[in-house]
Amino acid sequence: SFAYFTIKDRLPQILTRVIDTLHRHKNEFFEEHGEKGVEAEKRAISFLSKLRNELQTDKPVTPLEDELPDAALWNQYLDYQRNLSNGNGEPSWFQSPWLYVECYMYRRIHAALAHNPPIDNFDVFKEGKAQNFFESQEAGIALCTYFQELLKNIKDLDERQLQEELFKLLQVSLWGNKCDLSFSAGEGRSQKSNPLQSLENMMPYILVNDMEKLWSLLVNAKKRNTEKNNVRVDIILDNAGFELVCDLVLADFLLLSKLADEVHFHGKSIPWYVSDTTKNDFNWTLKQLQSANHMWMSRCGINWEGNLKKGVWVYHDHMFWTLPHDFSSMAEVAPDLYADLQKSNLLLFKGDLNYRKLTGDRKWEYSVPFHQALNRFHPAPLCSLRTLKSDTQVGLKPGQGEQIEASEPEWMINGKYGVVQFDAAL
Question: How much is the mean pLDDT over the chain?
Fold first, then answer.
């Protein structure tokens, strides 16, 4: 299975890269923290080498031994996995749900650093995320330029033209999800070309296209909106780098077209899945855009910083997003987060990991309705913008998946197909 290939090949590669990254920064740790920094680096590397060995030799998954706030929840989840195995031995790396052990690896990487001050705030994935941003610079400039030109006459657009622009930017945000570093085990995956030029050709690869439903939802929310009720859209972010820039453009368009009054972003509270967005990545991206030596790019950065200051953009990170639970457990495990999402008019879930957590990462029949696969996770109307990089997919027309599979066995994992899949939450 694709899960087997991931655990056998991709995850050890990612751990090896993390170890190499720490090695390369040895001098920097010494300059900043003296011998203490070097000692901490050695301890972190030894912890990660041991982790890699446990993974490759299919050792049992062990409880977390750190004092971090989420440790108890992780250890409870391990007990839950033990009970699932009905006494068939301890959950181990190759004998456990893929989603669980993959999340567990990233949490252990975090522990390797968190245990070892003074390098406990070092993000081992930061370089890759920054590289993706810089390598995608031209695509970013093209997108920011298009967007700033669009804003000059946004007030003159009629409803049909607004809809067209929304659909374009939704597609840019969807295909921006191809730039995923965990998928390539940290190898570069940057966007080199102008993303707007290829949208027409990419249309046939959107397997479920619910953009019309998003449009009606937003337009109706706007009409019902009174002074007291702001229209709120939440974006549950995926990758930093170019994908984040695509998401920020979409978010600003929603405000400036008056389709939304506020946008809430949800990122990860610790470095996660190689390229996922943390608060540091979010702020770093805005700073990079502001200081870019391109007029429209820097204009975007300045305006977006302004959105945060005015409070029409709000950034959140909640521990739940980096737990192993799928989203059907959110109401129970993180009732505060669930209650917050219920205030939204629309939740946009970016990327593959969010899709796996929305659908419980099960091997569904392709034609099972999306609503059913969400397993009672319905805080608000929601939509997944996802390019397919793992073998779970629901909500297709009867025979649609089988037909693609006949000519393209890799269709679910090669990142070539996408969905804009909506659930009304009723």
Answer: 95
3-class DSSP assignment, residue 216: helix
Q: How far apart are CA 421 and CA 166, in angstroms?
A: 15
Structure tokens at 99: 């989603």
Distances (CA, A) of 335 to 8, 25, 100, 341: 35, 40, 21, 10
User: What pLDDT does 67 receive?
Assistant: 92
**β-sheet bridge partners, residue 343:** none
Rounded Cα distance between 404 and 411, Å, is: 7
Distance CA 336, CA 340 (A): 6
Residue 104's nearest CA partner among 83, 77, 122, 128 is 77
> Which whole-number Å values give the CA distances from 222 to 168, 170, 202, 210, 396, in the listed order?
20, 19, 30, 19, 30
Residue pair 360/333 in contact by the 8 Å Cβ criterion: no
List, in order of start, the domains of the chain with CATH numbers: 2-115 (1.20.930.60), 127-423 (3.40.50.10880)
Give the model confidence (pLDDT) of 296-347 as tens digits: 999 999 999 999 999 999 999 999 999 999 999 999 999 999 999 999 999 9
The encoded tokens of residue 131 equal 């590289």
Q: For residue 139, what are the CA distances in angstroms to 4, 193, 302? A: 34, 5, 19
H or E stretch including 206?
strand 206-209
Q: Is the dihedral of CA 232, 235, 236, 240 positive or negative?
A: negative
DSSP for 17-43, written as a single string? HHHHHHHHTHHHHHHHHTHHHHHHHHH
Count Cβ neighbours within 10 Å for each residue of 255-292 and write b for 16 or more, e otherwise.
Answer: bbbebbbbbbbbbbbbbbbbbbbbeebbebbbebbbeb
